[in-house]
Amino acid sequence: MGATVPQFGALSAARWSALLQGRQGRQGRQGRHDRHNRHDRHDRAELTPAFALEAISNDVAFLIGPTLAVLAATQWHPAAGTVLAGVLVAGAGFAFAALRGTAPAPARREAAAGRLRTPRTPQNGVLWSRNFSTLLVVSLALGVFFGSMQVSVSAFADVHQASSAAGSLYGLMSAASLLGGLAYGRYRPHSPPAVQLPLILTFLACASLLPLLAGSPWQLGLALLLPGAGVAPCIVVSSVLVESVMDRSALTQAFTWTNSASAAGIAVAAATVGRLVDGPGGARAGFAVPLLVLTATAVLAWCGRGALAGARAG
């Protein structure tokens, strides 16, 4: 089933980039230097709220989706939740595909029209540049965070005889992420995204220490608010940087890779942490995994911030 789900996130992110860049191009050309300056402002002032909206939409889906699935399964039929999810994915996919006006032009057509940015690296290696590899690791780390938290929260709730509260606890983190995305999209920090990314990752790593200190479900709920608040901003900044370092001819492919890296992180973490929480360390051993992974990723982002700050795909 997972292999058949379309990459809506990657396709939508690529459309936002093309749509905003097209609008920017219609404002006129005033020389190469001005175009580069406008591209920088476009990255920070236009893409940030657009990608924040994407992150917020995902959080809303994570909050509402499970509730709808449970209601459908309990009120109608045990398989109704799965059927509802399939219908929504198929319906949304056809509706998305019908939006031809927002679809980016094929790379060959843009190249023929002279609008395609010149790739910074050979086409067969553009996805494996140092800058993109760093962003790929960030997406993988976020996936590990999601997968570890899901399993660890469930294990923690089960140990404290509050299994029914696991969904609510994880929902609190999603709600905090939603609010964090709203605040970040509205605030629009003035520092470069390459500086924001290691700062946010450092915040996430420090905040991930809090669940280790929780002694009860309500304490865990409070402890999940801070790391949750940093999730959406991290996704937004990472997406802005992907758009910045990649050539437009490979942008959709790049976003697909980052989404796939996140999904891989979720899968690997869920399997690994599942074994850890069954051991003597329990849920705390599971909570330690995202702390360690995010700390290492923050160090990587700090080391690579100079290259990311100077990277432009055109």
UniProtKB/TrEMBL annotation:
Chain intervals for the UniProt region annotation (Disordered): 22-44
InterPro entries noted in UniProt: MFS, MFS_trans_sf
SUPFAM superfamilies (alphabetical): MFS general substrate transporter
Domain of life assignment: Bacteria
Keyword terms of this UniProt record: Membrane, Transmembrane, Transmembrane helix
Coiled coil: none
Gene3D superfamilies: MFS general substrate transporter like domains
GO molecular function: transmembrane transporter activity
Biased composition (Basic residues): 29-39
Keyword Kinase: no
Keyword Membrane listed: yes
TM segment ranges: 79-99, 135-157, 169-187, 194-214, 220-242, 254-273, 285-303
Protein's UniProt name: MFS transporter
Taxonomic classification: Bacteria, Bacillati, Actinomycetota, Actinomycetes, Kitasatosporales
